[in-house]
Each structure stands twice: as C-alpha cells, then as structure tokens.
Amino acid sequence: MDKVVDHDHRIHWAVSLPFFGVHLVALAALVVPFHWAYVGVAVGLYYLRMFGITAGYHRYFAHRTFKTSRVFQFLLAWLGASSAQKGVLWWSAHHRNHHKYSDLPGDAHSPVREGFWWSHVGWILAPRYEETEWDRVTDLSKFAELRWLNRYHLVPPFVLALGLLLIGGWPLMIWGFFVSTVLLWHGTFTINSLSHVFGSRRYQTTDDSRNNVVLALLTMGEGWHNNHHHYMSSVNQGFYWWEIDMSYYILRLLERLGLVWDLRTPPQSVLVLRQAQDERLAIARWWTSG
Ligand SMILES: [Zn+2]
Ligand SMILES: [Zn+2]
Predict the structure, then answer these.
(1) Per-residue DSSP letters for 130-183?
(2) How many A from CA of 67 to the centre of ligand 2?
(3) Ligand 2 centre from 99 Cα, in Å?
(4) Separation of CA 280 and ligand 2 centre (Å)
C-alpha cells in the first residue's frame, strides 16, 4: 500500500540531541572494561524498566486495567519514567490517541500510513508531538505528584545513571544505563512500528494490529497487540496460556502481595468470538484443501 502522509514530518533536531547522544555513549561499551555482570545488569534493568512501561505507563496509566494505591501508582510512574520515554501523562495521552485513531489520520505513529522510521522513532522527536495533551488525561493530571513527574521526567533516568556510576563506575553506567536504555527504547518502539505490520490477526480490528510472539517476549507481553487493540481494557494481553505475557504474571504476583487489585480480564464473549473465528477458518481450509 502507498504511504498516506498526513503529518508534518519535521524533527526537532536540537531537542533530539540527547536521544542521539545516548546512542553514541552506548558505543563506549566497546572500549570500557568488560564483565558479564555488566551485561546482566543491562538485561535486568531492561526488563525491570520494560515492566514500568508495560504494566505502568501502558496497562495502568493509559488503560486503567487494574487498581492500586497512590504510593504504588507513583512508584510505577517513576519506574516507567526511568526508561527515559518522557513523562507519564505525555505518554498516556498520546497512547490514548493511538487507540482512538489507530492507523487512521490522527494516529501519531502508524507504520501503515507513514512507514517504519516515523512510527518507530520519528514521531517522538517531532515538535508536533512534544506537548502533553492534557484534556486526554484529566483522570491522571489531578495528582500533583504525577504532574511533577511528568514535568521533571528526566529526574528518574538521571538518578538511575548517577546511582550506577557511584556503585560501579563508568563501565557499570555505560552498560546498565546507556546500553540498556538504547535496547529498551528500540524494544518498546517495535510495538509502534512492527506490531502493526508483522504477525497474525486473530480479531478483525479496524487497524492493522498483529499478534507476534517474538515481540511479546521482547516486550513482556505487549506483542499480543491485536488482542490488545480488540479489547484494550484487559490487564492481560496474552489471552491464552500459550501467549506468554510476563507483565501479567508479575501483576498477578503483586496482586497476591496486596499491592494491586481489581485486575480486569477479557469477558467470555471476547474469547468465544475467537473460537468462532478459528472454526470458520478451519472449515474454510477443509473446503479449499478438499
Ligand atoms: Zn494500548
Ligand atoms: Zn497499536
């Protein structure tokens, strides 16, 4: 399909310099002293902060798929912000827009309409999307501490980087913050760029969202993106036991500890619809093969 360009594609290069700078500094991993422990910290902080994005920014703040206390809410927002993917209110507002206009004019990051690079990273660096759309997040902006964290969203990543530097010097900071953050960025961005292009479509949603097991493993369950677009109020994005969804399993654990509650799951009608579609496909295959 030809790309349908409906956006101003300018990138704010000056403001984006730190984004490119982090990539450059990550390359220093090639020259600083190496230890496997550094790799372990990088991977550990990748998945810990991915949880902050998936369970925090996405499933809690953008979609309100479970409930928690005001303190734990703040901790989730802090953890999400430590991934250096801007503020929690900025993120949630743009994400709610994505669901409203998915793959239609008004969607900030549709790979179907505007290609891989724009949906992967371009839109994040564009002046057009720099501001927080406050009218989309009135349920969240009533919390003063979230407004503060949204404004000073660079504080958590800065604290993390500084902490690593103090604990383990330059090598630990390069691996634990810079390498880990670059991987975390591009891991997260695949949901905007690739998961509307590669994978299977269980549900006939109005967008091009897909289910993709590789992306689900990289993003702790977000790769079940067609499921998610079909029923975004569900805390689990893997709808069946074979659809691995690490964020969901951890949230169930946190529920046992009493830290989160009222986890919302898809109603039977959503799962039954899937069975009906499978049966129709099986019958269609039987006819065509016969
Ligand atoms: Zn979503
Ligand atoms: Zn999507």
Answers:
(1) -S--GGG-HHHHT-HHHHHHHHTTTHHHHHHHHHHHHHHHHHHHIIIIIIHHHH
(2) 23
(3) 7
(4) 26
Concatenated DSSP letters of 86-100: --HHHHHHHHHHHHH
Q: How far is the CA of 61 from the centre of ligand 1 (A)?
A: 10
Q: Which ligand is nearest to the CA of 209?
A: 2
CA end-to-end span of the chain, whole Å? 33
d(CA 238, CA 251): 13
User: Distance from the CA of 188 to the center of ligand 1, in angstroms?
Assistant: 12
Q: What is the pLDDT of residues 11-45, one digit of tens each?
A: 888 889 999 999 999 999 999 999 999 999 999 99
- Per the structure block, which two tokens stand in for 7? 């956006």
Average pLDDT over residues 247-276: 91
| Angle ∠(55,56,62) on CA atoms, nearest 5 | 100
How many angstroms is it from 199 CA to the middle of ligand 2? Answer: 13
CB of 171 within 8 A of CB of 33?
A: yes
Neighbour tally for 1: CB within 10 Å: 6
| pLDDT given for residue 9 in this prediction | 82
